[in-house]
Amino acid sequence: MSLTPADTPQPTAISVRRKIPLSLIVGGLIVGLHLLAGILTILWTPYEPTAMVGGRLAEPSIAHWAGTDRLGRDLFTQILIGARIALEVGSGAVLVGAGIGITLGTLAAFATRTLDDVFAAAFDILIAFPTLLVAMLIVTASQTASLFTAVLAIGIAGSAIIARLTRILVKRVLSMDYIVAARVAGSSWPSIVFVHVLPNIWPTLIVNLALQFGLAAMAESSLSYLGLGAPPPNASWGRLLQEAQGTVYTAPFGAIAPGLALVTLVIGMNLLADGLRAFADPTRRRSR
Amino acid sequence: MRRSAILLVSVVLASAVLFVLLRLLPGDPANALVSVGADATQIEAARRQVGSDLPLFQQFLRFLTDIAKLDFGVSFVSGASVLREIGDRLVVTLPLTLSAFISSIIVAVPVGILAAVRQRTWYGAGISVISQLGIAVPAFWIGILLVTLFAVNLQLVPSGGFPTDGWSAPIDSIEALILPVATITLVMSASLIRYVRSATEEVMSSDYIRTARALGATLTGALVRHGIRNGAVPVISILCIELASTLLGAVVIERVFALPGLGSMLLLGIEQRDYPNVQGVLVVSTMLVLIAGFAADVIQRLVDPRLRGRVSGGAS
Hints:
- Chain A is mostly helical.
- Chain A has helices at 10-18, 22-43, 75-110, 113-128, 131-141, 147-174, 177-184, 189-225, 237-246, 257-280, 282-287.
- Chain B: The chain crosses the membrane at residues 98-117, 129-156, 176-196, 235-258, 278-299.
C-alpha cells in the first residue's frame, strides 16, 4: 500500500498530507469546547447544580448567563453538566454500537453465503426501525431509566447501521488480491482480520462513528425529553428542554439555550466527520 | 412475484424481532390482569388466558397467527379493542404524516435540484449549509421553537392538543396540525434536499446529459427529459424510508404537541405496561414500514425498466 519514493516526490506528498481541512479544525474546536465544558463540571461548576440560587425563571444576566429554571436553579450550570452527559452517552453509545456492529458485520462478511444473506436481511430490518423506538423499548425493558440504560439502548439501536457498513467494507477488502496473498502465505483468518481488514476499513468506519456520535447525542436528548433518559438529578439537555416547554410562556429563553448547546455539539461532530473523511479517506489520498 | 416472497419473509423476520423485543419487557403480561395480592391459582388462570404459560415457540406461532388475523386483543388498561384504538389514533397520525411527507417533497425536490444546478452561486451554497444545519437539529426542539414563536408570541395557531371529537370540526383539526406538520416538514426536507441534490449532481455529470447538451439541448431541457427519471430512482427509496420513519418517529412530535396519535398511544402503553397496545402499535407500524419498502421497489421498477430483471433490496 505504501507509495515508493520513485512515483511520489517526497515534498508534495508531505504538503498534501499536511493540509488539514477547515471543517476538521472548526468541528474539532466546537467539540473541544464541549469537551472542556464537560470535563470542567467534574471539578467545578458556577453554582451548585441543585441549589436554588436565584429568583424563579429569571432572565439571562451577568450572574446567571442563561437565566434560572422554574425552581430558581442556575440554567448555565445545568447546561454545562448537560454537555458532560451528552458526551458520556455519546461516547458510551458509540463504543457499544461499534463493539456489537463491527463484530457482527465482520462475522457476516466471513460467513457462508446463506448465513450472510440472513445477516444482511436482519441488518436491513433493524435499520428500518427508528433508533429512538428501539432505544425506547430497551429502556422500558430494563425497568429503571438511568444513564447506563440510555447508553446501552442507544448503542444497541445504532449498532445495525455500523454492522451493515462494516459488512460491506470487509467484503470489499476480502476480495482484494493481497488477502489471497496473505492466505497463501499462511496467515490465519483472525490475523488477517486484525492485520489487513480492520486497518483498511478503519478510516471509513471512524467517519461513520463520528456521525453516529452526533446521532447518539440527539437520541439521548429525545429519550430524556420523553422522560426515558437519565433521571432528574442529571441535567440532560433533553430534560431541560422538556421542563422549559412548560414555562415557555414566561421564560422562552430556557427553551432555547439547551437546544443551542445540543445543536452546536451535533454540528461540530458532523463537521469533524466531514473533515476526517476528507483527511483520512485512503482512496482520496491515493488518487492524488 | 419473487419480491412478494421477500416481503413475506421480512414480515416473519420482523415479527420475530418484535416478539423478542416485546418478551424483553419486564414482568409477565398476566400480572396486569390480576389485582395486587392475587394468589397463585388466580395468576395461573391469568397466564393461561394471555398464553404466557405456553412454550416460547408456541407463543411465537400464536403471535404470528394473531397478526395474520389482525387480532391484537384488548387493552389491559381500558379493555377496549386494540385494533379499534389504533384506528382512532391513525385518524390523527396518518393525516399528520402524509401531509408532512407531501409538503416535504414539494419543498425538497425543487430546492434540492436548484442547489445542485446552481451550486456555485451564493444561494446554492446557502441551501447546502442550511440543510446541513437542519440534520443536526432534533425535531422536538424545532417543535418547541415553533410553538414559542407562532403559538406563544404571535398566537396564530394553537400550541398543542387535538379536538376530542376528531375531524367533526375540520378547521380546528387542521389548525391543530399546522405546527406539527411544519415541524416534520422542516426536519424531513433538510435531509431530503441533500439526497435530491446529490442525485441531481450525479445525473448532471453523466454521459447522457453531456451528449444531450452536445446535441443542443439546454441544461434544463436535458434534465427534464432525461434527468428526472434517472435521478428519481435513488430518491424514491429514500422517500419511502423517510415516510416509514416519520410514521414511527411521530412519537416525539406527538408528545411536543400533545396529539392523541399512534406515537402517544405507544408511549402511554409503555408507561402503563399495556402490552396489547404496545404490541399492536409496533406490529401495525412495522407492517406499514415494510409495505413502504415494498412500494418503493415497485415504483422504482416502474420508473426504471433496467431494474425489472433483478431482485434488489432485502438480501442483496
